[in-house]
């Protein structure tokens, strides 16, 4: 009888604890964001911050951010500071924040940590990203249907899987409509350096590229294309106002749906660590910016038709046959590349001119 009573008491205490946790979750959720570049960069951090501003309007959310935080020790300090101040959720928005966030998450088990674009997790740290390669595929179609030189320049940040995957998807989209198109890659080894990114674009224009695209946070490459009278395709956000005479479209982020779900789950006590969120066009996290008047109707119609197929899961970007740079078939017809291999992609597809170093 005594044993039964103890079990009843323990069960009652558990219910009380769950109720308290649920009640606490109903209070205002404090959310911190750590950015790699300035929020005014018109690029990656800007796009993340647009999502922050959206959830900041929710009555149960309070947000704060720190911008231009270098990867490494500095990011660990900033994340640690958010945790010590009692923030409920911390979003680390750059790949290089991964290990510092893992370290801090182990010291604060009651805080929800969300890391962008990485692969490591802990019991209270998940990662999130979007299938930007779907939007890249579409912008590749735009570029390949509008190039006259068949040379498309790609200003790229670092040779990590995220960037390589985007270059490959862009190239697959391009060559799906124009097999003669090639994509020349120049690495800057920086996420945000407007002058360097612009110089990289100029070097590609000097090689004969008549369209410039990018995996960079600044509009530098867009500006270079406009100054040379060539076309450009942006990234992260709609950069049309920054290069109106050259901008065709852009592969863009919309983090609002994902951020909203995370804070709702934390508020309701339903958030779980150790998970990976990799959302695509069907959930609105990635898309392309509105076409400019420079894009002919037949190009717009083609891209919109392919976009509908991607959203409906009728077209898989990385479906075989796919060849690598040497011409070797690496994905046979009828097969696809699974997510684990996409997340670790370190090789280029046929049509890319450049190396992965």
Structure characteristics:
357 residues; alpha/beta; Rossmann fold; 2 domains; seven-stranded mixed beta sheet; six-stranded parallel beta sheet; 11 helices; 20% strand; disordered N terminus; signal; ABC-Purine-Binding; Nucleoside-binding protein; PnrA-like
Structural class: alpha/beta
Name of the CATH class of the largest domain: Alpha Beta
Shape estimate: globular
The CATH H-level superfamily of the largest domain is Response regulator
At CATH level 2, the architecture of the largest domain is: 3-Layer(aba) Sandwich
Mean pLDDT: 92
Strand arrangement in the largest pleated sheet = 12-10-9-8-6-7-15
Main β-sheet description: 7 strands, mixed
Q: Encode the helix/strand succession as letters.
A: HEHEHEHEEHEHEHEHEEHEEHEEHE
The count of domains is 2
DSSP E strands, number: 15
Q: Within the CATH hierarchy, at the fold level, what is the topology of the largest domain?
A: Rossmann fold
Q: How much helix, percentage-wise, in residues? A: 25-40%
Low-confidence parts: 1-23
The N- to C-terminal Cα distance equals 70 Å
Radius of gyration: 22 Å
Q: Classify the beta-strand content into a percent band.
A: 15-25%
What is the count of DSSP helices, taking H or I runs of 4+ residues?
11
């Amino acid at each position: 009888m005594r044993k039964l009573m103890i079990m009843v008491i323990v069960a009652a205490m558990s219910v009380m604890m769950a109720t308290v946790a649920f009640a606490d979750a109903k209070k205002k959720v404090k959310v911190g964001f750590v950015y790699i570049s300035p929020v005014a960069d018109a690029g990656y951090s800007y796009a993340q911050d647009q999502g922050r501003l959206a959830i900041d309007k929710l009555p149960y959310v309070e947000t704060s951010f720190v911008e231009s935080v270098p990867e490494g020790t500095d990011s660990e300090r900033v994340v640690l500071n958010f945790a010590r101040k009692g923030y409920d959720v911390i979003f680390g928005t750059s790949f290089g924040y991964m290990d510092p966030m893992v370290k801090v998450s182990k010291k604060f088990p009651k805080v929800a940590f969300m890391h962008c674009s990485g692969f490591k997790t802990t019991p209270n740290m998940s990662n999130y990203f979007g299938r930007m390669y779907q939007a890249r595929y579409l912008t590749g179609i735009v570029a390949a249907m509008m190039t006259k030189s068949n040379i498309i320049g790609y200003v790229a940040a670092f040779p990590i899987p995220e960037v390589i995957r985007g270059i490959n998807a862009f190239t697959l989209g391009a060559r799906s409509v124009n097999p003669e198109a090639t994509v020349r890659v120049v690495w800057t080894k920086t996420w945000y350096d407007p002058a360097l990114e612009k110089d990289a674009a100029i070097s590609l224009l000097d090689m004969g590229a008549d369209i410039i695209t990018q995996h960079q946070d600044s509009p530098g490459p867009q500006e270079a294309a406009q100054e040379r009278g060539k076309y450009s395709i942006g990234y992260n956000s709609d950069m049309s106002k920054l290069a109106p005479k050259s901008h065709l479209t852009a592969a863009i982020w919309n983090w609002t749906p994902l951020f909203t779900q995370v804070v709702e789950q934390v508020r309701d006590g339903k958030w779980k660590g150790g998970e990976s969120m990799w959302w695509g066009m069907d959930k609105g996290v990635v898309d392309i910016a509105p076409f400019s008047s420079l894009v002919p109707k037949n190009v717009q119609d083609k891209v919109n038709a392919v976009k509908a197929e991607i959203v409906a899961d009728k077209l898989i970007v990385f479906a075989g046959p796919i060849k690598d740079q040497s011409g070797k078939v690496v994905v046979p017809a009828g097969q696809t590349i699974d997510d684990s291999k996409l997340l670790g992609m370190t090789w280029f597809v046929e049509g890319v001119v450049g190396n992965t170093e």
